[in-house]
Amino acid sequence: MKKSVLPAVAVLCLVAASFCADRQACSVVETDKEIRIGTPELQAAVRKKGYVSGVAARSLVDRKTGFSDPGYGLDIADWIMEPGSDRAYRDRLDKELIYRYDNAYHGRRAKRSIEGPQICTKARELKPEIIRGKDFVAIRQKYRYRTAAPGKKVGSTWTQLLVFPAGKRYFVSMDRIDAVNDSSAMFLRIDMPGHVKHKNGDTFSKVYLSYHGTIASSEFARNFAPDEKFNYRRDSVKTVPKRFIRAIRLRDAKTGKKGPWLAGMTLDPSVVHEAWCHQRGYICMILEFGGRPIKAGQSFSAAHIVGYFDSIEEMNKVYDLHKGNTALTVSPKGWKLAK
């Protein structure tokens, strides 16, 4: 451990390291700003303040290769939304709920926020719960939305579970909405796996979209709108893809050294409403799930696997072992994906 880290840990540490399997130490260190997790395969951090939700930017480190994510974080949460325009009542909306479309950032498709704020940038602080088991560490975090569009209630709840199993180079996650409003097509917007910072493709060599194929980094040399290319919409495909995997082949920006694939897998392809993979100064990897009728008191969720893989074949193998799941449960006794 570097000397510069020791004083902060000594002063702020609230939870010490714990052991979660024979000869496999899973460490958990909590400070006032974040929770740091370590397994034999990964390092990760979950922010408590500032830019929150998901796994913090640059913190998911693959111990095998030393590579980390090159973006703003992984499995990051935004607003609850639905199709349609907010233009008729935009002057009555809280500024954090206004959604402007028909532009290069958001594309041409009309959408509107039902409840906000955007969790990652506006929630400011979350209170994650640590759950430790024999061979894993898990984090549960929740947020109750505080603003709503005219005619809508406030108070829908976002719940996220992040499970870091010993022996794996990935984490398993779930995002869930317990709704207090009716909607004909409610969905949650998240970053999956996460946005990609780069300068002319220096941090990655390829993008892989299971519903499209492999894309060279040169395709992201200029900005383009989300619906210009590489866009997935459930209502525009004849058949839902067999797998829903989005990945980047990492490379070292300084040396050009090849790295592993960093992938985000949504384990039930049918829950994906729309998915973006476009360039706007960075690669924007937004995923929207849900998009079906829901009544107040009901819920919807999606389950994911996010992490490092040596090949597309390895991704496919892991995906097929867990395919079809949309939910995740966890307790100190164990964790389980469910349909």
Q: How is this fold's topology laid out?
A:
Layout: H1 6-12, E1 18-21, E2 24-30, E3 34-38, E4 42-47, E5 55-56, E6 61-62, E7 73-74, E8 76-83, E9 111-116, H2 119-122, E10 129-132, E11 136-144, E12 147-148, E13 157-165, E14 170-178, E15 183-191, E16 204-209, E17 213-216, E18 232-233, E19 245-251, E20 258-266, E21 272-275, E22 278-279, E23 283-284, E24 286-294, E25 299-309, H3 312-322, E26 327-331, E27 334-338
Antiparallel strand pairs: 1-2, 2-3, 3-4, 4-6, 5-7, 8-9, 8-15, 9-12, 10-11, 11-13, 13-14, 14-25, 15-24, 16-17, 16-19, 18-21, 19-20, 20-25, 21-24, 22-23, 26-27
Total discrete domains: 1
Q: Bin the helical content.
A: under 10%
Strand residue content: 35-45%
Distance between the termini: 41 Å
Stretches with pLDDT under 50, minimum 5 residues: 1-19
Strand sequence of the main sheet, in spatial order?
10-11-13-14-25-20-19-16-17
Radius of gyration: 19 Å
Mean pLDDT figure: 93
* Tally of separate helices: 3
- Count the beta strands: 27
Principal-axis shape equals: globular
The description of the largest β-sheet is: 9 strands, antiparallel
Oligomer: single chain
Please provide the ordered H/E string of secondary-structure elements: HEEEEEEEEEHEEEEEEEEEEEEEEEEHEE
- Report the structural category: mainly beta
Protein described:
The chain is mostly beta strands. It has one domain. It has helices at residues 6-12, 119-122, 312-322, and strands at residues 18-21, 24-30, 34-38, 42-47, 55-56, 61-62, 73-74, 76-83, 111-116, 129-132, 136-144, 147-148, 157-165, 170-178, 183-191, 204-209, 213-216, 232-233, 245-251, 258-266, 272-275, 278-279, 283-284, 286-294, 299-309, 327-331, 334-338. It has a nine-stranded antiparallel beta sheet with strand order 10-11-13-14-25-20-19-16-17, with helices on one face. Strands 12-9-8-15-24-21-18 form a seven-stranded antiparallel beta sheet. Strands 1-2-3-4-6 form a five-stranded antiparallel beta sheet, with no helix packed on it. The radius of gyration is 19 Å and the shape is globular. Mean pLDDT is 93; it is low at 1-19.
